[in-house]
């Protein structure tokens, strides 16, 4: 009989042992805090003089919300089931189209549905198409699966441009979220009300996807990803596991699409386009596909780059691409993976010994990034920006890209910063290895 | 005919033009502990792969509990009550030991492809998993990702996953390969305990394990059965000694 | 008849162009297991390099220099990028090339601008070679056929007559074994990757002025090349050749045959009106869905015959 009873007790019984909501709240306080923080965030941008919310901030935050639902649903396939899909946006977009049509039907009086439940309609659309496409795609694994999804993605995207009845052709389907059928008496005419709806649905979807990982299907998706033969020999058909996981991920993607329809009140072919699928892939990978929250983190990064940087620069996609490649090469676990690597060191209590090494690589790092950005912006400006009639500014100084000076400055910062970074990186590496070795010796690796 | 657990009739398997299994006839009665031995390349693992549905038969029939399994997929054969382990350790490396065993139980306990049961609250399932982990003596490694276990621990885990679902026909492919003497002793005791009342078919190279564990031994050489008998008579069999054991057999 | 012959010739030209692209991709995929998303980007770079070099020096130097430049870039990508990512698995390599394709497209936009560049057929080749039923067949298309045929011949000779060619052939079928036999597999990989990229660049040189040279050309051409590779099957250059020609012919003929499913149904006596369900789908004419056909084929092939026409291995 093992004396280590605490190690043995399954988590389920622990929940039953400590009664009540108090224990529940204590365990999941982080979730509650995040929910509250999300609701409070727009108030940082509130204009107190005019008593109005920043429309830009609300739209960007809503985008983060619905895109994270999209990215998390993508990770149900990639991270959980080991299925790399290049066409996930079709489930998102088709859900959006279904939601838009639903809204229009509510508006016309053909059906009655509270506005709050319209994302659910999008989800059902995503589920149906997820089952349909999933039946075809999950016949194969790995590279063949990726190619089927790419083919399906291109097919649906092309159809969205061609057919008017369901897709509205190039113009898309417009809709109006102010239908007067709210369950809580809200009109949703203001961005703030829409944002609250987005936050609630994002929370529901995230919790649901999180719980799904703890179900038999969720566990077997992980298992079949790790070892499909062994999954067969515990009685599961790995193909059916993939199929159900695919269909479910379509359900959640459809919810994201439904939120999109409500927020933007128009759904066009770019919601099913390859670039949308690519965004999910980039966000998930940058954030980290291994854990659960990686896609959330990655979505925040990508949307910030997309919304924020695209105001200032044409080259935001280049930055995302470079970040992505750097991740693929040096940090395949994504941002979450990088954070997780620090866990053993934190456990030995020696995390603060990394502060100085980090500062030492931060300075040359910032310098080389500055140089890179400067060169990219200069190049982008000379070919694209000039045609758009803008002037080139660093901070508030106007700079003439026709002269050699800014180019030399950028090149010097990039090359100089890069060389200095390589030097410091070596020192950082030594310190890091030493700390990890120490953690191993103290048994803190797990 | 269903007190014969595994029945092979004129089983042949070719890869391209090379015939690996050349007409094997074998009956394994229910509850028997059966060992299969033979030189490397004799086709023992191939035979395992045929019985478990990993490869299709070229000709002949294989029946489990009287039911022909020709053309069935591996997971369908598993659901009929056959489970196997692999020569190269086959577990779920990124799942913990606990989750590995629990996955072995899920289908057998009727969970199917459920996405609405929260496993944390499935008390009976979790308790059964913990009991099996104790039998495997792995409770100290309960929450460790399986990929980080030592080799012998992984082999024990593999046996655990194989028997978790309660299959009554168990195939073990070289379960003690690469183990030290004490690890082997422990593994044999474990195998004997978990195969109580079940039909066991083991491929092994370690003769002490074979002669200690098996009720009947079949000798496979170049895809053919040259002898199938109780251990005492196998030891003395001239053909077996020539082909495999050597004349210095204990 | 006239339409048929003209379309046949055009289809062959396009098919050979596709083969130039697809052959390199098949080699890389079969040998290294890498689905190279940046392959079509090399095609685009070849076209743009040729444009710039043609402006400065002339078309004929561009024909030689641009592919070499692309090959050099390919070698650099393989040595400094792909090799490092290799240990993280096939998916990581795929994602790496995908990110690369995104970056290259953006860099091209930044260097040459967003609008198509006027990369024209050189004056020396811009004349009608012969006339078919009153339609001119431009000499440039014959030139394209010539170059692609020469290239095909060169690959064939190179693979069957040289030592490294034999090694490559072996690695096409059994990459692990080749390494076990003592060949310098990394160097073979770099060579194949660079050669494949150079081929794509050459295709860009002659294809860029046949089609439009613009930053989106990589992402428009790319998926079609993938379809060809999958269709032809892994490990088989002959299959790739047949698939390329087939795809070229299908796409060319689809544009020319202005029929729809409704027309087919009418042949059986069923009329389709605007009240018929799915009437939109039934009346869409073939030229409009010509762009779709490769993807329909891709999905069908992968579901029913995932090894492709003549594939020897699974993906």
With strands numbered from the N-terminus, the spatial order across the biggest sheet of chain A is 1-2
| Number of helical regions of chain A | 19
Percent of residues in helices of chain A = 55-70%
Shape of chain B: globular
Fraction in beta strands of chain A: under 5%
Count of helical stretches of chain B: 9
Q: Would you identify the regions of chain B where 5 or more consecutive residues have pLDDT less than 50?
A: none
Question: Mean pLDDT across all residues of chain A, rounded?
Answer: 85
Strand content of chain B: 15-25%
Widest sheet of chain B: strand order? 6-7-8-3-9-10
The strand count of chain B comes to 10
Q: How many domain modules of chain A?
A: 2
How would you sum up this structure, described in words?
The complex is a heterotrimer of chains A (446), B (250) and C (315). Chain A has 446 residues and is an all-alpha fold. Chain A is built from 19 helices and 4 strands. The radius of gyration of chain A is 24 Å and the shape is globular. With 250 residues, chain B is an alpha/beta fold. Chain B has a 6-stranded mixed sheet with strand order 6-7-8-3-9-10, with helices on both faces. The radius of gyration of chain B is 19 Å and the shape is globular. The mean pLDDT of chain B is 88. Chain C has one domain: ABC transporter involved in vitamin B12 uptake, BtuC. Chain C has 14 helices and 2 strands, in the order ααααββαααααααααα. The radius of gyration of chain C is 21 Å and the shape is globular. The model of chain C has no long low-confidence stretch (mean pLDDT 81). Chains in contact: A-B, A-C.
Short structural description:
The complex is a heterotrimer of chains A (446), B (250) and C (315). Chain A has 19 helices and four strands.
Name some characteristics of this structure.
heterotrimer, A: 446 residues, mainly alpha, ABC transporter involved in vitamin B12 uptake, BtuC, 2 domains, two-stranded antiparallel ribbon, 2% strand, globular, disordered N terminus, B: 250 residues, alpha/beta, Rossmann fold, six-stranded mixed β-sheet, four-stranded antiparallel β-sheet, 9 helices, 10 strands, 25% strand
List the helices and strands and how they pair.
The complex is a heterotrimer of chains A (446), B (250) and C (315).
Chain A: H1 5-8, H2 11-17, H3 20-27, H4 29-40, H5 55-80, H6 89-108, H7 118-137, H8 142-162, E1 173-174, H9 191-212, H10 216-226, H11 228-232, H12 238-264, E2 266-267, H13 274-287, H14 294-312, H15 316-330, H16 334-341, H17 343-347, H18 355-385, E3 393-394, E4 397-398, H19 405-441
Helix pairs in contact in A: 5-9, 5-12, 5-13, 5-14, 6-7, 6-12, 7-12, 9-12, 10-12, 13-14, 13-16, 14-15, 18-19
Chain B: E1 4-15, E2 18-29, E3 33-37, H1 44-51, E4 59-64, E5 67-68, H2 74-79, E6 82-84, H3 97-106, H4 123-135, H5 151-164, E7 169-173, H6 181-194, E8 199-203, H7 207-213, E9 216-221, E10 224-229, H8 231-236, H9 238-245
Parallel strand pairs in B: 3-8, 3-9, 6-7, 7-8
Antiparallel strand pairs in B: 1-2, 1-4, 4-5, 9-10
Chain C: H1 2-32, H2 39-56, H3 59-86, H4 90-112, E1 128-132, E2 135-138, H5 139-161, H6 163-173, H7 175-180, H8 185-208, H9 217-232, H10 237-256, H11 261-267, H12 279-283, H13 286-289, H14 293-304
Helix pairs in contact in C: 1-5, 1-6, 1-8, 1-9, 1-10, 2-3, 2-4, 2-8, 2-9, 3-4, 3-8, 5-6, 5-8, 9-10, 9-14
